[in-house]
Design brief:
about 325 residues, alpha/beta, 2 domains, two-stranded parallel ribbon, 14 helices, 10 strands, about 10% strand, globular
Length: about 325
């Protein structure tokens, strides 16, 4: 093996040692033309709602070799976030992925550790970049190409016998590996649980999500008021939505996340509805210090709580 060609099994073993649940490697190349055209059409149809950044750097998003010149291999990893302990279902609900510390930080530290491990395997320097929801990268597509799983009708990556509750990350590197993975067949079959359970009909069953209707987008990214039709469908969800994951039979295989930094803090788990109604900005900063929930900002979270409170009155 030349010093510019790394042993795939070594890399995978180290990824698992670092706590990732899965790791695969794909050859870097432009995305499949069907995927490129479907993504471009999704943007042209405005299904990304106000996430205008999704339309930026389209050339790089559709060809990773333009995002990092000289990229030869894309290492995809998945980190489990399925919560060991869930919020009481009678209380306000937060998306599972947001229970613990902001995943960007946790993932980046692990990705950098894996990249440094690879670098140390060679006496010739390599160039790499790590990504986790931080650049124009079709993450689920690359995880699929790297053989981690398939993209289900809920648009999530499904890992067989493990489910869909995973953060995804990538290392782009300018070196080859000894063996590349091959994609897995879609195993959704005739199931349409996710499409049927989506409260706002945001999934079309053909791997397309309409963010304009999706409660995850509307309660997190969206800075405007929540449209009344979708707002009423929120029920007691105040940050994100997991309905299309909860209904997926593959998540019956999910195992609890043991990553210390992704565990929820005690105040978060014990908050009652009346506590959320009176949440001050200072309490918000304390409870969500270093958390992904900061993305919605205090004003966004309080908007959502108010909506959930109104939904209760309508019951
Ligand atoms: S997150 Fe909720 S609203 Fe969005 S597609 Fe899934 S089930 Fe539908
Ligand atoms: S709920 Fe069914 S259709 Fe949806 S992603 Fe899971 S297996 Fe696929």
């Amino acid at each position: 093996m030349s010093s510019r060609c790394f042993d795939t099994q070594n890399i995978k073993a180290e990824a698992l040692r670092l706590g990732f649940s899965a790791c695969g490697i794909a050859r870097a190349e432009a995305v499949h033309p069907d995927v490129a055209s479907s993504f471009s059409q999704w943007i042209a149809d405005g299904k990304q709602a106000n996430m205008h950044y999704m339309a930026n750097h389209l050339d790089k998003r559709l060809n990773p070799c333009l995002l990092m010149e000289g990229t030869k291999s894309i290492i995809s990893v998945a980190l489990n976030y399925y919560p060991a302990q869930q919020l009481n279902e009678n209380q306000y609900q937060f998306a599972w992925y947001a229970y613990g510390k902001d995943y960007h930080e946790v993932m980046k530290a692990k990705l950098n550790a894996l990249a440094e491990f690879i670098r140390q395997q060679s006496n010739i320097d390599i160039s790499y970049r790590v990504f986790c929801d931080t650049a124009p990268v079709l993450e689920r597509y690359w995880a699929y190409k790297a053989g981690l799983g398939w993209i289900g009708k809920n648009t999530q990556l499904i890992i067989p016998q493990a489910g869909s509750c995973f953060f995804l990350g990538e290392i782009f590197m300018d070196a080859a590996v000894s063996e590349y993975d091959t994609p897995m067949e879609n195993r959704c079959g005739n199931c349409s649980n996710c499409v049927d359970s989506c409260p706002t009909h945001a999934l079309d069953g053909h791997l397309r999500l309409d963010a304009n209707r999706c409660l995850s987008y509307l309660t997190i990214e969206n800075r405007e008021r929540i449209p009344s039709t979708e707002g009423r469908k929120m029920g007691n969800k105040v940050y994100g939505c997991d309905e299309c994951q909860r209904s997926c039979p593959w998540n019956r295989f999910a195992s609890p996340c043991m990553e210390v930094e992704l565990q929820p803090n005690a105040p978060f788990l014990t908050m009652k509805k009346e506590d959320w109604h009176q949440l001050t900005e200072e309490q918000y900063r304390t409870i969500f210090k270093g958390s992904a929930v900061k993305r919605a900002k205090y004003s966004g979270l309080m908007r959502n709580i108010k909506q959930a409170e109104e939904n209760e009155k309508d019951l």
